[in-house]
Amino acid sequence: MAPYNPDEMRPEWTIPSGVFVVTLQSGERVNGYAAGWVVRVSEVPVIIQVAVWEENYSYELAQDAKHFVVHVLEEGQQDMARHFGQTCGRDADKLCGYETRHGVSGVPVLEDCLSHLECEVVFRKVFGDHIVLVGKAIDSAIHRDGKALIHEYSDYHDTPGVQPKTPNP
User: Fold this and answer.
1) Among 3, 67, 148, 164, which one has the highest count of C-beta atoms within 10 angstroms of its own C-beta?
2) How much is the pTM?
């Protein structure tokens, strides 16, 4: 495999995925991060897998978080995804300015999304540069009708020769 070059498009970046915000809590510390690696592992019971990059503040929280909430973003919510993906939770309260409520586990639930799934962690393991959390859904809701936001690499990263579908601020 070719060595990593941040200025060059990579084949793995073309794998389609949705765009999500995941909130989690460890003790009194709370954070949210933009995620593309969210997978439904089981239908009955509903089991969800998320991955957290080791450079993210949320990685620290994921070490002992007991719950997390996956928020499915809607087409047009790229700015929200950029906020949760490009703002560091060590330096700012990323939830400030967003309407939230406490989920059944106490982890914040964002109101402005298509749907959410609140999960209790049943498994965690480090794989390469990510920690994977697997959680059983304990609460979920559809907030409104709409289409899920699909990740387009160029919407969030400067890529030579590739124009974003939506303008980056």
Assistant:
1) 67
2) 0.87
Residue 113: how many other CB atoms lie within 10 Å: 25
Three-class HEC string of 105-125: CCCEEECCCCEEEEEEEEEEE
Query: If you compute the radius of gyration of the chain from its CA atoms, what whole number of angstroms results?
Result: 16
Q: What are the tens digits of pLDDT across the range 136-164?
A: 999 999 999 999 999 876 666 665 554 55
Could you report the per-residue pLDDT of 87-100, keeping only the tens digit for each? 999 999 999 999 99
Q: Domains in the chain and their CATH numbers?
A: 15-154 (2.30.110.10)
The two structure tokens encoding residue 89: 């939770």
141: tokens are 């809701």
| Contact predicate 24/69, CB 8 Å | yes
DSSP 92: S
By the 8 A CB rule, do 29 and 87 touch?
no
Q: Output helix, strand, coil percentages for the chain, rounded to the nearest 5.
A: 15, 40, 45
Check residue 101 and give its pLDDT: 97
| Residue 91 to residue 158: CA distance in whole angstroms | 23
